[in-house]
Amino acid sequence: MSRDARCVFVAYDQKVADVVVAALGGHGITARSMGSETLSSILGFASWPSPTSRNGGIEVWVADENDAEVARQILAELKEEK
């Protein structure tokens, strides 16, 4: 599956996606979770009734594509700290 360049993380559930969005926000990067329903409405497609986790996860997108690389670095550093 090809992902948008603004996608910096794929979560397995909404709670994890929310934590990632909050972590990026704490570093000054605006991001939002993009489940299949959100993506479908943006792209103009009907969403499937199955949960997003079965359809490739819940993507976290940065608002500004120019922040994507920095966001990925922040998330990598946070993962290492874990």
Report a brief summary of the structure:
The chain has three helices and three strands; from the N terminus they run βαβαβα.
Keywords:
single chain; alpha+beta; 17% strand; three-stranded antiparallel sheet; Alpha-Beta Plaits; 82 residues
Q: How are the strands of the biggest sheet laid out side by side?
A: 1-3-2
Helix content: 40-55%
Report how far the terminal alpha carbons are from each other. Answer: 28 Å
Question: Whole-number radius of gyration?
Answer: 13 Å
Low-pLDDT residue intervals, each spanning 5 or more residues: 46-54
Shape, principal axes of CA atoms: globular
User: How many β-strand runs?
Assistant: 3
Tally of domains: 1
What fraction of residues sit in β-strands?
15-25%
Per-chain topology:
Layout: E1 7-11, H1 14-26, E2 31-34, H2 36-43, E3 58-62, H3 68-81
Antiparallel strand pairs: 1-3, 2-3
Please characterize this protein's 3D structure.
With 82 residues, the chain is α+β, with helices and mostly antiparallel strands. It has one domain: Alpha-Beta Plaits (2-Layer Sandwich). It has three helices and three strands. The chain has a three-stranded antiparallel sheet.
